[in-house]
Design brief:
By secondary structure, the chain is mainly α. The chain has 2 domains: about 110 residues, Four Helix Bundle (Hemerythrin (Met), subunit A) (Up-down Bundle); about 140 residues. It is built from 9 helices and no strands. Helix 1 packs antiparallel against helix 2, helix 6 packs antiparallel against helix 7 and helix 7 runs antiparallel to helix 8. The protein starts with a helix and ends in a 10-residue tail after the last helix.
């Protein structure tokens, strides 16, 4: 049924947001991130449950429904188990990995390779989610890069004692570093989810031939670059100036990706 399909598509979007926020909670635990992840996770569960219920009513036969939607039910059980576990014990990394698998399973069930590119059961919705996620992530990556470059400029001016006029209304170094790290931390999981959705779409369109598209390699490199920036800022505890050089390098790679491939997403709108 069309309503059930819309509910399941919306569940994927909310589920992706939940996984992204859970990544942030694992890397930089805060009460706000934990509460937000819990809200998104419950929202995804409710939407998935509603979508499955609507499709079950329309199927008519329970046996046929279960046989045709095994992966969807598996993802629903994973999500339900993770919610039950989160109420008993705090295991953020386990929950992140479990729900990342659940997101992958439900996405591959709803958008299998070989499905028609349009129509109520097609992959247009998947492409929309991919492009929107990529746009949001690139905005965050640009902010992280700009803050990194501003940090390096201000640090250089301070070292040369030429800061009076040029640093007018610029935030302090510590604030610039924090802004850069936070923007990258949020952007990395959003971009990772977006790339996964785009990869499923591209594989359905061109199979393994999609790997020949330079956008795939450049997008993967951008994700690795900003992921490394998050690592050196959060886990390796590099000196701020050294870490900001990594952020500036990732920013350069981001623009190289854009000007080389002329696109922010893995795929353009078909037709």
């Amino acid at each position: 049924m069309l309503v059930g399909r819309w509910l399941l598509d919306l569940a994927i979007a909310v589920y992706g947001l939940a996984v992204s926020v859970m990544f942030i909670e694992v890397v930089r635990p805060t009460p706000a991130a934990g509460r937000t992840a819990f809200v998104f996770l419950n929202g995804a569960f409710l939407l998935l449950t509603a979508g499955i219920t609507v499709e079950l009513i329309g199927a008519g036969s329970l046996a046929a429904f279960v046989a045709e939607r095994t992966r969807l039910l598996y993802a629903w059980l994973l999500l339900a188990a993770s919610l039950l576990l989160s109420a008993v014990v705090r295991a953020d990394l386990f929950l992140l990995l479990t729900n990342a698998v659940g997101l992958a399973v439900v996405t591959l069930h709803l958008f299998p390779p070989g499905a028609p590119a349009s129509g109520p059961s097609g992959r247009e919705e998947l492409l929309v989610l991919h492009i929107v996620g990529a746009l949001v992530a690139y905005v965050l990556f640009v902010l992280a890069g700009v803050f990194s470059v501003l940090y390096l400029l201000l640090d250089g001016w301070l070292a040369a004692k030429r800061v009076r006029g040029r640093a007018f209304r610029m935030p302090p170094l510590e604030q610039l570093a924090r802004y850069a790290g936070t923007a990258a931390l949020v952007g990395v999981p959003v971009f990772a989810v977006s790339l996964f959705l785009g990869g499923v779409w591209a594989f359905g369109e061109a199979g393994f031939g999609a790997l020949r598209d330079p956008k795939v390699g450049f997008s993967g490199a951008v994700l690795l670059a900003y992921g490394f920036f998050v690592y050196v800022r959060t886990f390796a505890r590099w000196p701020w100036r050294r870490a900001m050089w990594v952020g500036a390098g990732a920013f350069f790679l981001l623009w190289l990706n854009f000007w080389t491939t002329h696109s922010l997403a893995l795929a353009a709108w078909p037709g």
